[in-house]
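note to self: dont lose this again. the chain is below, predicted strucutre after it. 382 aa total, dont forget to put it in the shared folder this time
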Amino acid sequence: MIVFKTFLKVLNKSKMPIILYTVILVFFGAFNMQTSENSTNFVASKPDILIINKDKEEGITKNLIEYIKENSNIKEIENNEQAIDDALFYREVNYIIYIPENYRQKFLNGENPEIEIKSTGDYQSSFAEMMLQRYIQIANIYKENIEDEDELINKINETLSKQTEIQITSKLDTNNLAKASFYYNFANYSILAGCVYVICLILSSFKEEKIAKRTIISSMNFRKYNLQLLLSNSLFAIILWIFYIALSFILVGDIMFTIHGLMYIINSLIFTICALTISFLIGNLVRNKNAINGIINVVALGSSFLCGAFVPLEWLPDTVIKIAHILPSYYYISSNEMISDLEVINFETIKPVLTNMGIILIFAIGFTIITNIVSRHKRKIG
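---
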């Protein structure tokens, strides 16, 4: 109780910077959650295409142009190469199709005339390329067996009009699960940074000369002292965790009331326990309050970048991911990604998530043991 009362006095003394820093982290997490909504959804769009037709617009040539018009946005640009190149450079068009003279006649004669193109090289130009190639390939296949142009055009249009029927069998709310994963992934930084800042600030106060000497000469066992101090600091960690959980119900929505939401909450609680032990270890190693901000950048910001809190894991190089395996943040974020993909929840499907949670707890136990060793060593030196 003496340690806990001292902890509360120190916490009360430093309450203003602690409240300010915590509010900033919570606000930053909420802001990133809101701004991410525009980047998590894919919206299909038609490419902007310019057609330079040097052939007569009739027959197969006319049909090709009509097909392209139906599946793209046709742009009108001044018919000179300088204006065309400028339009391509400034992304006014994604794809330019040059239909050569006598294209229709050469195609019907089986000469396979070449259509020249220019493109921006982006994903929309790739879509335009696939669209053009699809038409030409289908037309060439039917041309081998059909000589009548009208019949040929009808067959081409009939084939192009066929669409693959897609049935969505998954019942997952993928949009909200993606939002939840992003939110809880970012919480890796916020929880870790908040714990490191506050706990290091509090522990540095316990290391002030008067308090440190009283602790050393007291009859209290160092393990008991560390345990009480750890439990006292856990009070702040749990309050910070509750803040983020409450905020997730507001920002993420109804998905937090499902079994997926419960798993996100449990996973974040286990990581908060680990973040607490990391902070407690750092607090026992560092005495200088001015060094706390630098430590946050190294520990919280560094692990967040390496483990996928800011950049999705699938975008990170293999070397970075291998390095990330030595950090508890990797297993926390990896579990979040697994949870978002779970359609059926049973022991077999959540086994990898439970394994990751177990690894995080092992990290927490390891940090606690190292803290006790460091604390005992420092007492002997003192």
